[in-house]
Amino acid sequence: MSEHQTHTNPEGQFVKRTVEVGGITKRELINKLHASSIRLNKYGEKLLLDDKFLVSKNKYHLKTVELTVHSLGFQQGANTSDLFRKAKELGLSLCPVELGPFLRLVYTDQHEHESNVKNQAPAGAVTIASEPLYQHDDFPKGFYLRRIDEELWLRGYTADDLHVWNPEDVFIFCFKGETETGQ
Fold it and tell me: Which keywords fit this entry according to its UniProt record (predicted)?
């Protein structure tokens, strides 16, 4: 289940969504991704299969917002810790890492963009702002969503603390205190 609304502010558009998360096992979640033809890169698989990646037994709903680095106030880009700090100042919070697969299952109308860049977020990618499962740089920090050749992808990414995100890079954050438990 997901509902979304698009809004415009002086820096551009942002999207609010309510996404249902949890209520199934990790195996059921992985099976749903496969049944929906969701593609995974090796980092996405590594995140999903790690013992620290947990799926809530209870359903709940998260209210999220999708916005650019620029709309957070960084016209020249920013590193991850600066982005996350600014989001917190604005009343946003990091998303649980489990949001990525659930959002990918319902966000099926993502636009496709050509992109062959290295060491940067690809054009059209939507990164889920979440606390990494591990602090070392060689383990994926989180998920991002992308459409490539008409296929939906749930991809993991790596980035160190020095990585600077571009102003047009898109992140999803949660609204603080906007979690609703489901039945």
Answer: ATP-binding, Helicase, Hydrolase, Nucleotide-binding
CA-atom Rg of the chain in angstroms: 15
For 18, phi then psi, to 5°, come to: -120, 125
**For helices 42-49 and 26-35, angle between their N-to-C axes, nearest 10 degrees:** 150
**What do you get for the CA distance between the two ends of the chain, in Å?**
13
For 76, the token pair is 């020249």
Q: Is the pLDDT of residue 20 over 60?
A: yes
Geometric angle at alpha carbon 153, from 5 and 115, rounded to 5°: 90
Render pLDDT for 74-130 as a digit per residue (tens, 0 to 9). 999 999 999 999 999 999 999 999 999 999 999 999 987 766 666 667 778 999 999
- How much is the pTM? 0.87
Residue 179 · residue 62 · CB < 8 Å: yes
**Closest Cα to residue 98, out of 140, 138, 48?**
48
Q: State the SS3 of the chain.
A: CEEEEEEEECCEEEEEEEEEECCCCHHHHHHHHHHCCCEECHHHHHHHHCCCCCCCCCCEEEEEEEEECHHHCCCCCEEHHHHHHHHHHCCEECECCCHHHHHHHHCCCCCCCCCCCCCCCCCCCEEECECCCCCCCCCCCEEEEEEECCEEEEEEECCCCCCEECCCCEEEEEEEEEEEECC
